[in-house]
UniProtKB/TrEMBL annotation, chain A:
PANTHER family: ELECTRON TRANSFER FLAVOPROTEIN BETA SUBUNIT LYSINE METHYLTRANSFERASE (PTHR43648:SF1). It comes from Mangrovimicrobium sediminis. The lineage of its organism: Bacteria, Pseudomonadati, Pseudomonadota, Gammaproteobacteria, Cellvibrionales. Coiled coil: none annotated. CDD domains: AdoMet_MTases. One of its GO terms (molecular function) is protein-lysine N-methyltransferase activity. This is Methyltransferase.
Automatic annotation (TrEMBL), chain B:
The electron transfer flavoprotein serves as a specific electron acceptor for other dehydrogenases. It transfers the electrons to the main respiratory chain via ETF-ubiquinone oxidoreductase (ETF dehydrogenase). Residues 23-211 form the Electron transfer flavoprotein alpha/beta-subunit N-terminal domain. One of its GO terms (molecular function) is electron transfer activity. It comes from Mangrovimicrobium sediminis. PROSITE patterns: ETF_BETA (PS01065). Pfam families: ETF. GO terms for biological process: carboxylic acid catabolic process. InterPro entries: ET-Flavoprotein_bsu_CS, ETF_a/b_N, ETF_b, ETF_beta_N, Rossmann-like_a/b/a_fold. Keywords: Electron transport, Transport. This is Electron transfer flavoprotein subunit beta. CDD domains: ETF_beta. The lineage of its organism: Bacteria, Pseudomonadati, Pseudomonadota, Gammaproteobacteria, Cellvibrionales.
């Protein structure tokens, strides 16, 4: 097992996240992990968890809590990887990561030189995890719980894996109205035909830790609107 | 082979149900809701068919308001692949549910449709049979065993006199009885996966169905309260009371 220098990250925040996770899933633990496709980018993610089935109450708690931040989803990893490969996409720009979860995409944007990165998520625990992970990777992020409350011009909105809920589809139009350019990473919608969004490329990845999702969700397609 | 499973959101079977004070309906305020147990058995059976390599995809459908998405997600956590919610206000009656399910069947073209034999709220035991009549598909109700064999499914049914096995040509409809299987609990990875599995929302109009009500609920009242029992002094008194008061011996 590799251990990491986590001097920049707040141990109290880490303990707090671990406590809150254990209250939802007794026995679940967190560990800093390097993403296989994103250079040195590392995140605090789920390590141990009960391998057996959960009882009805624990199942319900997991259902009721978003908890998306305990995993790095395939689309998040792919979009982060794309930004690391294409730094010009974000360099010098003001960027917002919508539904940031663990913060993986926002952190990648900051690493390659965005002027300001706003990480936005309605889940308060996700924002805490993002704050921890930002410090872990020695980048500065602005945190936002409410997209509508973000002031000022946005050059680029980054969106990884939020379209699994079809109710989020109308956001696609709000994004293009709000920023000059939008990048979407998605594996959940089969026939994505929503101009002005255009397909750029497809990359393969998986959730970390691997949930063994069906094969179709490993193939993440990137779409761009504007620019 | 694609399998379609219907699930219904009902009051949890552990809840002690009460009538509203005005007798207009059952009081569902702040009451725990869950998948109807017979529907959960249907989901389990479909997932087992997938694990055996018989089914390739398990689609779960529920009819109701947005809250029934919770039960769809629960079914997805048990192993179904994707969900469909048909958006209907209030509690649709069996005939309407059957018509909506017929619309979903025409859209999805499953080879097997599995439903619970009845829901524990209305206890109607009608929807599967009505769906059979509307679609013209064969039906095996009250199943305690389901074996797919080529283009047929053999369904062992629990009937009053014992067991009866029927062979149905696919596509077919199966409704589950209690002893078909014991549903699993979900694991953490499966619940996390389920949160992001596809869930489409359809309206009755999308399926060409008009939601109408043919049944009027007049009144809901609790059963009469049982009066307190008595203690008898000895066996003779018990026999006397059974003979002369209860008149059962």
């Amino acid at each position: 097992m590799t251990t990491f220098e986590i001097s920049g990250a707040d141990p109290q925040l880490r303990a707090q996240l671990a406590r809150q996770l254990a209250a939802i899933i007794p026995g679940a633990t967190l560990r800093e992990q390097v993403l296989p496709q994103c250079g040195d980018l590392r995140l605090l993610l789920l390590e141990d968890y009960p391998r057996d089935v959960l009882d009805a109450e624990a199942s319900q708690r997991v259902m009721d809590n978003p908890l998306y931040w305990v995993l790095c989803w395939a689309s998040g990893q792919v979009l982060a990887e794309y930004l690391l490969d294409n730094p010009d996409t974000v360099r010098g720009r003001r960027v917002l990561d919508f539904g940031c979860g663990s913060g993986v995409v926002a952190i990648a944007a900051a690493l390659v030189g965005a002027r300001e990165v706003i990480a936005c998520d309605i889940d308060p625990l996700a924002l805490q995890a993002t704050a921890y992970n930002a410090a872990l990777n020695a980048v500065d992020l602005t945190l936002a719980a409410d997209f509508e409350a973000v002031d000022g011009d946005l050059d680029l909105i980054l969106v990884a894996d939020v379209l699994y809920d079809r109710e989020n589809l109308p956001w696609l139009e709000r994004f293009t109205a709000r920023a000059g350019q939008v990048l979407v990473a998605d594996s959940r919608i089969r026939n994505f035909d929503r101009p002005p969004y255009r397909r750029i490329e497809q990359r393969e990845s998986c959730t970390l830790p691997d949930l063994d999702e069906s094969a179709e969700f490993r193939f993440v397609t990137l779409y761009r609107a504007g620019g | 082979m694609k399998v379609l499973v219907a699930v219904k959101r009902v009051v949890d079977y552990n809840v002690k149900v009460r009538a509203k004070a005005d007798g207009s309906d059952v009081d569902l305020n702040n009451v725990k809701m869950a998948i109807n147990p017979f529907c959960e058995i249907a989901v389990e059976e479909a997932v087992r068919l997938k694990e055996k390599g018989v089914a390739t995809e398990v689609v779960v459908v529920s009819i109701g308001g947005k809250t029934c998405q919770e039960q769809i997600r629960t079914a997805l956590a048990l192993g179904a692949d994707r969900g469909i919610q048909v958006e209907v206000e209030g509690n649709a009656e069996p005939l309407v549910v059957a018509k909506l399910l017929k619309g979903v069947v025409e859209k999805e073209e499953p080879q097997l449709v599995i439903l619970g034999k009845q829901s524990i709220d209305g206890d109607n035991n009608q929807t599967g049979q009505m769906l059979g009549a509307l679609t013209g598909m064969g039906q095996g109700t009250f199943a305690s065993e389901v074996v797919v064999d080529g283009d047929k499914v053999n369904v062992t049914r629990e009937i009053d006199g014992g067991l009866q096995t029927v062979a149905l040509t696919l596509p077919a409809i199966v409704t589950t009885d209690l002893r078909l299987n014991e549903p699993r609990y979900a694991s953490l990875p499966n619940i996390m996966k389920a949160k992001k599995k596809p869930l489409d929302v359809l309206t009755p109009a999308d399926l060409g169905v008009e939601v109408k009500s043919h049944i009027t609920l007049l009144k809901v009242e609790p059963p009469a309260e049982r009066s307190a029992g008595i203690k008898v002094a000895d066996v003779d008194q018990l026999v006397d009371k059974l003979k002369n008061e209860a008149k059962v011996i």
